[in-house]
């Protein structure tokens, strides 16, 4: 269990019962499964949309607190939906935390999710605790929104801490393992400063 999950279980009280939540997925099964997982945390899905077009018409008229959107959908996909939302000028919806879901995610598509303005991406099938961790994390995310070129969204750099979950990059895991196995560096006499004059 991750540190965040332990922290949530041990000491945190999180109440999302009043959050206005939208789930967008062209698969009725995935839409229902995600909505049921959210309901387990007390989050009622206010808007369940089968297409980006349906979501856009709702987002133009109604404020939303949390958006979960599938990356791969026919027609306007999740990347285009989030990019449109960030650029829409709709206040407060342009700033809503947007979690993208994906059945599989190549590195180039992960970069596209970051560059369209998504807050986070999770890969299906995801566990309920993983979904909750990501929701809690994005709800507490304090990164400023930036407009750089054609990008508008949360700062893509993580300055304070790191995203939730275990480190999964092989290079960083190998580096941490190597550092853990290194013996302490011996200190030579010439490197030690003494208060006693020689």
Overview of the molecule:
- α5 (107-116) links the parallel β4 and β5.
- The chain is globular, with a radius of gyration of 21 Å.
- The strands form two sheets. Strands 2-1-3-4-5 form a five-stranded parallel beta sheet, sandwiched between helices. The protein has a two-stranded antiparallel ribbon with strand order 6-7.
- The protein is α/β, with parallel strands linked by helices and 198 residues long.
- The relative contact order is 0.12.
- It has helices spanning 3-11, 28-40, 52-59, 78-87, 107-116, 128-140, 170-181, and strands at 21-24, 45-49, 66-70, 98-102, 120-123, 145-148, 151-154.
Order of helices and strands: HEHEHEHEHEHEEH
Q: How many angstroms does the end-to-end distance come to?
A: 55 Å
What structural category do the secondary elements indicate? alpha/beta
DSSP summary, beta strand count: 7
Tell me the Rg in angstroms: 21 Å
**pLDDT averaged residue by residue:** 80
Based on CA inertia axes, which overall geometry fits? Answer: globular
Strand order of the largest sheet: 2-1-3-4-5
Beta-strand content: 15-25%
| Count of helical stretches | 7
Unreliable stretches, pLDDT < 50, 5 or more residues?
6-11, 185-198
Level of helix content?
25-40%
Question: How does the major sheet shape up?
Answer: 5 strands, parallel
